[in-house]
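Bug #77: duplicate submission created two jobs. Keeping one. Sequence:
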Amino acid sequence: MLAFVALVLAAWIGVSILTLPSVAPLANPGVSMTITVKDWHRKDHPFVVGPKNPRWTPYGALPAALKKAVVASEDAHFYSHEGVDYEAIKRR
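Kept job's structure:
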């Protein structure tokens, strides 16, 4: 039974990996793409991500204080752990 479960899990992981979208477009930061975001009423809204968005700002143009503020608001211990805050995960 354990071997069957392991086989099914391995098959599921294999299929999941093979059906993932390509990451090649991410190599070119100048590429824009359109994603669809659903609102509370499940209505679709197209949203352009990247330089073709009229409100797009390159990362280098953001002030350092803003970058630090975002990191601090998302993870106050960002610079004191090794990438994963296990204590925060335990609290959830």
